From TrEMBL:
Keywords: Acyltransferase, Cytoplasm, Transferase. The keyword Lyase does not apply. PANTHER family: LEUCYL/PHENYLALANYL-TRNA--PROTEIN TRANSFERASE (PTHR30098), LEUCYL_PHENYLALANYL-TRNA--PROTEIN TRANSFERASE (PTHR30098:SF2). Transmembrane segments: none annotated. It catalyses: N-terminal L-lysyl-[protein] + L-leucyl-tRNA(Leu) = N-terminal L-leucyl-L-lysyl-[protein] + tRNA(Leu) + H(+); L-phenylalanyl-tRNA(Phe) + an N-terminal L-alpha-aminoacyl-[protein] = an N-terminal L-phenylalanyl-L-alpha-aminoacyl-[protein] + tRNA(Phe); N-terminal L-arginyl-[protein] + L-leucyl-tRNA(Leu) = N-terminal L-leucyl-L-arginyl-[protein] + tRNA(Leu) + H(+). InterPro entries: Acyl_CoA_acyltransferase, Leu/Phe-tRNA_Trfase, Leu/Phe-tRNA_Trfase_C, Leu/Phe-tRNA_Trfase_N. Its EC number is 2.3.2.6. The keyword Amino-acid biosynthesis does not apply. The lineage of its organism: Bacteria, Pseudomonadati, Pseudomonadota, Gammaproteobacteria, Alteromonadales. It comes from Alteromonas oceani. This is Leucyl/phenylalanyl-tRNA--protein transferase.
Length: 244
């Protein structure tokens, strides 16, 4: 029988080393999806994932998949697509539209297929976005949204949550422009959570949880000493065009 810590709204997360091996990374359940809880989670290498009707489940798997920015691999076809400038790519132009599109894409994770982005999750990440901590990249064709991704940024790390495409390679295009943008602003890496063949083809590597936490701790300065979002962070993630 699995025994998991239950979190009250004010209960801190247990150490990530206490996460289960099977299922990989399951750490605790309960608490809420408030902005403070979510920021604390991502800053500690923890993220929520659960299906409709389940309690809030918190995860910190090992190994962890990350894309080091210098290791991102753009295929020849993707590089050609970027040079053609067929699409407009933006940052934080329409977060709500991106997360709703992603919610309609079934995602396989931990052996399950489900549309795991519930209405509660949408509301939680929208609130985090309005505080300037969750971000989206949009790909547009003639002012129609055709691809994109969203996630949470902690310091110099982008914790990817989901992506979608309506036209070929438009989700990869969003990722490529995100990498470029982060490189221009001194970013470190993209957290991809669990390794997949698709992510590995884009340059993701697997690292053990302790190495991930160590690297995250060196890059996750999001708030200043007074508890406000750092000015460098705000400048990096303000709404803007990413393509010319």
């Amino acid at each position: 029988m699995i025994s998991l810590p239950y979190l009250e709204p004010d209960t801190p997360f247990p150490p990530v080393e206490h996460a289960l091996d099977d299922p990989n990374g399951l750490l605790a359940y309960g608490a809420d999806l408030s902005p403070g809880r979510l920021l604390t989670a991502y800053s500690q290498g923890i993220f929520p994932w659960f299906s409709e009707g389940e309690p809030i489940l918190w995860w910190s798997p090992s190994p962890r998949a990350i894309i080091p920015l210098e290791g991102f691999r753009a295929s020849t076809s993707l590089r050609k697509l970027m040079r053609k400038r067929l699409y407009q790519v933006t940052l934080n132009r329409d977060f709500a539209a991106v997360i709703h599109q992603c919610a309609h894409i079934p995602r396989i994770q931990y052996g399950q297929t489900s549309t795991w982005i519930t209405e509660d999750m949408i509301a939680a990440y929208q609130a985090l976005h309005e505080l300037g901590l969750a971000h989206s990249v949009e790909v547009w064709k003639d002012d129609k949204l055709v691809g994109g991704l969203y996630g949470v940024a902690v310091g110099k790390v982008f914790c990817g949550e989901s992506m979608f495409h309506c036209l070929p390679n438009t989700s990869k295009l969003a990722l490529a422009y995100l990498v470029e943008h982060m490189q221009q602003h001194g970013g470190d890496f993209i957290d991809c959570q669990m390794p997949t063949e698709h992510l590995m083809s884009l340059g993701a590597v697997s690292i053990e949880r302790d190495a991930f936490i160590s690297r995250l701790n060196g890059s996750n300065q999001t708030l200043d000493q007074d508890g406000y979002i750092c000015s460098d962070y705000q400048q990096t993630w303000c709404a803007q065009a990413l393509s010319e």
